[in-house]
Amino acid sequence: MPNSVCKIHFFIVILQQIFITLTPMKEIFNEITHLEPLDIFYVGDRHKTYFEYPAHCHEVFELNFVENAAGVVRTIGDSHEQIGDLDLVLITGSKLVHIWEQGTCPEQDIHEITIHIDPDIFRGTLMDKRALASIRRMIERAQRGLAFPEPAIRLLREDIINLAQSNDSFASVIRLFNLLYRLSLVEDAHELSSSSFVDAKEEYEDERVRQVKEFIAKNYMNDIGLKEMADLACMAPESFSRFFRNKTGRTPNRYLIDYRLGIAARLLLTTQHPVSEIGFSCGFNTLSHFNRLFRESKGCTPSEFRERF
Q: Who contacts 118 (Cβ-Cβ below 8 Å, separation ≥6)?
């Protein structure tokens, strides 16, 4: 590489580091990743003593593995959790803000493997094929951030490390797809951010479920009963409740509550409206009811949530 190009590249890197240093922790920026246009994925494998990267989002998909980091606080959208010894999250939402912060973690050798994946390889008719159905569904769910349970992480830990250490580009792609497939079969992975907070869309969703979700999105501020939702799907209430839970993992009423809480969380962060006004505008009849459900879901009151973020 010519000296002039090296100097320009060095100068850009210095500017990026200055920007990151001067940016407050809660400032959000769009990250320019190391993924090159001709690469399918990029792996960053590092040992560190401290989490200092600011809140960010990016277009590429991210699979982030962390070990030996109990006490670290992970924030994905409006989800705020303290992690254990092992953590593995898949993020496919291009505007889903995320950050890992030190929290109470005392460890001096934190191991982190970050895999950035080109989203273009998951677009087009290939993803319509039956063999990729579980991966397709996982990618849709991960628009909200998808966290995997520790037993599954322990089972796949060696695969992740081997992928990070592989020097054969073609074999690495096979390893990556095998890892994604095995992750897509994990039954108790759970979404992190609420769908209404990130405005996640599901392309391959059942039409009856889609109609009910669209109805909720337009009417969440009003009283909505189970029968009203069931009528939209042309089903009896009890049958619809079972059907909706099988398709989404949540009862219709739980989905409605989570949707309202996601809208409320977004309003808490983007407006100065009083907490009570936000609660009522999102369909909660009393402030105490709003506070109780918000605390159960987010681990803090609406006021604490606004102050924290």
A: 35, 39, 40, 41, 60, 61
SS3 298: helix
Quick one: the chain helix, strand, coil %, rounded to 5?
A: 50, 15, 35
> Whole-angstrom Cα distance, residue 16 to residue 22?
10
Q: CB of 261 within 8 A of CB of 278?
A: no
Tokens for 247, please give them.
């398709």
d(CA 185, CA 135): 8
Q: What is the pLDDT of residue 61?
A: 97
Instruction: Give this prediction's pTM.
Output: 0.72
* List of the chain residues with pLDDT < 70: 1-29, 199-205
User: What is the rounded CA–CA span in Å between residue 117 and residue 121?
Assistant: 9
Q: Measured between alpha carbons, how far apart are the two ends of the chain, in Å?
A: 44
How far is the C-alpha of 20 from the C-alpha of 27, rounded, in Å? 10
Please give the distance of CA 230 from its chain centroid, rounded to a whole number.
29
Q: Where are the alpha helices (DSSP H) in the chain?
A: 3-22, 133-141, 150-165, 169-184, 195-198, 207-219, 226-232, 237-248, 252-270, 275-281, 287-298, 302-308
Return phi, psi of residue 33, to 5°.
Answer: -80, 175
41-48 β-sheet, strand order: 41-48, 110-117, 61-67, 86-91, 146-147, 190-191
Within 13 A of 250's CA, how many CA atoms are on the CB side? 14
Provide the pLDDT for residue 234.
93
